[in-house]
Amino acid sequence: MKTIDVVVVQQCHFPRRSIREIGEDIRVRFSPMGAKVHFLAEESAMAIIWSGLATEKGPTEEIRNHTKLIGPVVLHVRSEMDIHARLAAQYDPLPLYLPDWKYRVCIWLRPGEIKGRFIHTGYEKVYNGCSSIVCRLISSRRNDPKTADALKSLVTAWHDSATTTGFGEEDMSGSQIKVMAEDDEFQFEVHGYRPVTFPWIELYLRIRALLPRSRLPRGITYGLLGAPEHSVFLARMGIS
Q1: How far apart are CA 240 and CA 116, in angstroms?
Q2: What's the pLDDT band for 60 if we cut at 50, 70, 90?
Protein backbone atom coordinates (compact mmCIF):
# COMPACT_ATOMS: atom_id res chain seq x y z
CA MET A 1 0.00 0.00 0.00
CA LYS A 2 1.23 3.49 -0.86
CA THR A 3 2.21 5.74 2.05
CA ILE A 4 2.63 9.50 2.38
CA ASP A 5 4.10 11.98 4.82
CA VAL A 6 1.61 14.55 6.12
CA VAL A 7 2.22 18.00 7.62
CA VAL A 8 -0.51 19.77 9.60
CA VAL A 9 0.05 23.47 10.30
CA GLN A 10 -1.70 24.99 13.32
CA GLN A 11 -1.28 28.62 14.33
CA CYS A 12 -1.06 28.64 18.11
CA HIS A 13 -1.38 30.83 21.16
CA PHE A 14 -0.87 29.06 24.45
CA PRO A 15 -2.01 31.03 27.53
CA ARG A 16 -0.26 28.90 30.16
CA ARG A 17 2.90 27.38 28.65
CA SER A 18 5.33 28.13 25.85
CA ILE A 19 5.03 26.61 22.40
CA ARG A 20 8.39 24.90 23.01
CA GLU A 21 7.00 23.13 26.09
CA ILE A 22 3.98 21.93 24.11
CA GLY A 23 6.28 20.73 21.32
CA GLU A 24 8.31 18.73 23.81
CA ASP A 25 5.07 17.18 25.13
CA ILE A 26 4.22 16.06 21.61
CA ARG A 27 7.71 14.67 21.07
CA VAL A 28 7.56 12.61 24.26
CA ARG A 29 3.95 11.43 24.05
CA PHE A 30 3.43 10.95 20.32
CA SER A 31 6.80 10.19 18.74
CA PRO A 32 5.93 6.44 18.76
CA MET A 33 3.14 7.40 16.33
CA GLY A 34 5.73 9.01 14.07
CA ALA A 35 4.93 12.60 15.06
CA LYS A 36 7.56 15.35 14.85
CA VAL A 37 7.23 19.12 15.39
CA HIS A 38 8.74 22.23 13.82
CA PHE A 39 8.07 25.82 14.88
CA LEU A 40 7.42 28.53 12.30
CA ALA A 41 6.44 32.22 12.00
CA GLU A 42 8.50 33.33 15.01
CA GLU A 43 7.05 30.45 17.05
CA SER A 44 3.44 31.49 16.44
CA ALA A 45 2.72 28.32 14.45
CA MET A 46 3.40 24.64 14.85
CA ALA A 47 3.96 22.21 11.97
CA ILE A 48 3.29 18.63 13.05
CA ILE A 49 4.65 15.90 10.79
CA TRP A 50 3.52 12.30 10.44
CA SER A 51 5.45 9.86 8.25
CA GLY A 52 4.36 6.68 6.50
CA LEU A 53 0.58 7.09 6.58
CA ALA A 54 -1.30 4.72 4.30
CA THR A 55 -3.16 6.32 1.41
CA GLU A 56 -5.62 5.23 -1.22
CA LYS A 57 -7.51 8.44 -2.01
CA GLY A 58 -6.96 12.03 -3.19
CA PRO A 59 -5.32 14.80 -1.10
CA THR A 60 -8.46 16.21 0.58
CA GLU A 61 -9.85 12.78 1.45
CA GLU A 62 -6.44 11.69 2.73
CA ILE A 63 -6.21 14.66 5.07
CA ARG A 64 -9.72 14.16 6.44
CA ASN A 65 -9.23 10.42 6.89
CA HIS A 66 -5.93 10.89 8.65
CA THR A 67 -7.47 13.28 11.16
CA LYS A 68 -8.62 10.09 12.91
CA LEU A 69 -4.99 9.08 13.31
CA ILE A 70 -3.56 12.49 14.13
CA GLY A 71 -6.59 13.61 16.10
CA PRO A 72 -5.11 12.89 19.56
CA VAL A 73 -2.18 15.22 18.83
CA VAL A 74 -4.39 17.98 17.45
CA LEU A 75 -6.76 17.71 20.42
CA HIS A 76 -3.80 17.92 22.80
CA VAL A 77 -2.61 21.11 21.11
CA ARG A 78 -6.06 22.66 21.18
CA SER A 79 -6.63 21.80 24.82
CA GLU A 80 -3.51 23.83 25.60
CA MET A 81 -4.94 26.66 23.48
CA ASP A 82 -8.12 26.68 25.62
CA ILE A 83 -10.30 26.10 22.57
CA HIS A 84 -13.80 24.93 23.45
CA ALA A 85 -14.65 21.55 21.90
CA ARG A 86 -17.58 23.02 19.96
CA LEU A 87 -15.34 25.70 18.45
CA ALA A 88 -12.53 23.23 17.75
CA ALA A 89 -14.91 21.14 15.69
CA GLN A 90 -15.40 24.09 13.35
CA TYR A 91 -11.73 24.22 12.39
CA ASP A 92 -11.23 23.02 8.83
CA PRO A 93 -8.10 21.46 7.30
CA LEU A 94 -7.38 23.06 3.93
CA PRO A 95 -4.64 21.77 1.61
CA LEU A 96 -1.59 23.80 0.63
CA TYR A 97 0.00 23.01 -2.73
CA LEU A 98 3.73 23.72 -2.70
CA PRO A 99 6.68 23.14 -5.09
CA ASP A 100 7.84 19.95 -3.45
CA TRP A 101 6.87 16.29 -3.54
CA LYS A 102 7.78 15.03 -0.08
CA TYR A 103 4.76 16.04 2.03
CA ARG A 104 1.03 16.52 1.84
CA VAL A 105 0.40 19.77 3.66
CA CYS A 106 -2.75 21.26 5.19
CA ILE A 107 -3.38 24.26 7.40
CA TRP A 108 -6.08 24.35 10.07
CA LEU A 109 -7.85 27.71 10.06
CA ARG A 110 -10.02 29.16 12.75
CA PRO A 111 -13.76 29.59 12.05
CA GLY A 112 -14.37 32.73 9.99
CA GLU A 113 -10.92 32.71 8.38
CA ILE A 114 -11.67 30.36 5.52
CA LYS A 115 -13.29 33.13 3.46
CA GLY A 116 -11.18 35.86 4.99
CA ARG A 117 -7.49 35.08 5.32
CA PHE A 118 -7.19 31.79 3.47
CA ILE A 119 -5.08 32.18 0.33
CA HIS A 120 -5.50 29.60 -2.44
CA THR A 121 -2.35 27.85 -3.57
CA GLY A 122 -1.84 25.91 -6.77
CA TYR A 123 0.47 24.82 -9.54
CA GLU A 124 0.81 26.36 -12.96
CA LYS A 125 2.68 23.20 -13.82
CA VAL A 126 3.36 20.43 -11.31
CA TYR A 127 6.86 20.64 -9.89
CA ASN A 128 9.14 18.06 -11.50
CA GLY A 129 12.54 18.77 -9.99
CA CYS A 130 13.31 21.88 -12.03
CA SER A 131 15.95 24.16 -10.44
CA SER A 132 14.31 27.40 -11.68
CA ILE A 133 10.75 28.16 -10.59
CA VAL A 134 8.46 31.17 -10.41
CA CYS A 135 6.11 32.14 -7.59
CA ARG A 136 3.21 34.50 -8.37
CA LEU A 137 1.01 36.31 -5.87
CA ILE A 138 -2.23 37.09 -7.71
CA SER A 139 -4.38 39.97 -6.49
CA SER A 140 -7.95 41.01 -7.33
CA ARG A 141 -6.88 44.67 -7.35
CA ARG A 142 -4.01 46.76 -8.57
CA ASN A 143 -0.95 46.63 -6.38
CA ASP A 144 -0.20 50.12 -5.12
CA PRO A 145 3.47 51.05 -4.62
CA LYS A 146 3.17 50.66 -0.84
CA THR A 147 1.88 47.08 -1.13
CA ALA A 148 4.50 46.20 -3.75
CA ASP A 149 7.27 47.56 -1.51
CA ALA A 150 5.89 45.65 1.49
CA LEU A 151 5.82 42.42 -0.51
CA LYS A 152 9.34 42.96 -1.81
CA SER A 153 10.66 43.54 1.73
CA LEU A 154 8.73 40.51 3.04
CA VAL A 155 9.96 38.15 0.32
CA THR A 156 13.54 39.40 0.51
CA ALA A 157 13.67 38.99 4.30
CA TRP A 158 12.11 35.52 4.02
CA HIS A 159 14.63 34.40 1.41
CA ASP A 160 17.55 35.80 3.45
CA SER A 161 16.42 33.68 6.41
CA ALA A 162 15.70 30.66 4.21
CA THR A 163 19.23 30.71 2.79
CA THR A 164 20.97 31.19 6.15
CA THR A 165 19.16 29.66 9.12
CA GLY A 166 16.41 27.89 7.18
CA PHE A 167 13.05 26.65 8.51
CA GLY A 168 12.05 23.22 9.80
CA GLU A 169 15.50 21.74 9.25
CA GLU A 170 15.38 22.77 5.57
CA ASP A 171 17.14 25.65 3.85
CA MET A 172 17.41 27.24 0.42
CA SER A 173 21.17 27.84 0.51
CA GLY A 174 22.69 28.46 -2.89
CA SER A 175 19.46 29.83 -4.39
CA GLN A 176 18.92 33.34 -5.72
CA ILE A 177 15.71 35.31 -6.24
CA LYS A 178 14.62 37.94 -8.75
CA VAL A 179 11.62 40.05 -7.70
CA MET A 180 9.17 41.68 -10.14
CA ALA A 181 5.91 43.58 -9.59
CA GLU A 182 3.10 44.26 -12.06
CA ASP A 183 -0.30 45.93 -11.72
CA ASP A 184 -2.22 42.95 -10.34
CA GLU A 185 0.58 40.46 -9.81
CA PHE A 186 3.71 40.25 -7.73
CA GLN A 187 6.14 37.52 -8.67
CA PHE A 188 9.61 36.32 -7.97
CA GLU A 189 11.84 33.76 -9.59
CA VAL A 190 13.98 31.31 -7.66
CA HIS A 191 17.12 30.00 -9.34
CA GLY A 192 19.32 27.23 -8.00
CA TYR A 193 16.26 25.75 -6.29
CA ARG A 194 16.30 22.43 -4.44
CA PRO A 195 12.89 21.10 -3.32
CA VAL A 196 11.91 22.17 0.20
CA THR A 197 8.62 22.39 2.09
CA PHE A 198 8.91 24.30 5.36
CA PRO A 199 10.39 27.52 3.93
CA TRP A 200 7.28 27.80 1.70
CA ILE A 201 4.98 27.23 4.67
CA GLU A 202 6.87 29.98 6.49
CA LEU A 203 6.35 32.37 3.56
CA TYR A 204 2.63 31.57 3.47
CA LEU A 205 2.29 32.28 7.20
CA ARG A 206 4.25 35.53 6.93
CA ILE A 207 2.05 36.79 4.11
CA ARG A 208 -1.07 36.03 6.14
CA ALA A 209 0.33 37.69 9.25
CA LEU A 210 2.06 40.77 7.88
CA LEU A 211 -0.27 42.02 5.13
CA PRO A 212 -3.58 43.73 5.93
CA ARG A 213 -6.61 41.67 5.04
CA SER A 214 -7.58 44.04 2.22
CA ARG A 215 -4.18 43.51 0.55
CA LEU A 216 -3.88 39.73 0.81
CA PRO A 217 -3.43 38.00 -2.54
CA ARG A 218 -6.26 35.81 -3.81
CA GLY A 219 -3.82 33.10 -4.70
CA ILE A 220 -0.21 32.00 -4.71
CA THR A 221 0.85 29.94 -7.69
CA TYR A 222 4.04 28.03 -8.34
CA GLY A 223 5.30 27.10 -11.75
CA LEU A 224 8.33 26.25 -13.84
CA LEU A 225 9.89 29.08 -15.77
CA GLY A 226 8.42 29.10 -19.25
CA ALA A 227 5.28 27.18 -18.17
CA PRO A 228 1.79 28.34 -19.27
CA GLU A 229 0.53 31.17 -17.07
CA HIS A 230 -2.67 29.50 -15.89
CA SER A 231 -3.83 25.92 -15.76
CA VAL A 232 -7.23 24.23 -15.61
CA PHE A 233 -6.56 23.67 -11.90
CA LEU A 234 -6.24 27.41 -11.27
CA ALA A 235 -9.30 28.19 -13.38
CA ARG A 236 -11.33 25.81 -11.23
CA MET A 237 -10.22 27.73 -8.15
CA GLY A 238 -11.57 30.93 -9.73
CA ILE A 239 -8.13 32.47 -10.16
CA SER A 240 -7.72 33.81 -13.68
Answers
A1: 19
A2: low
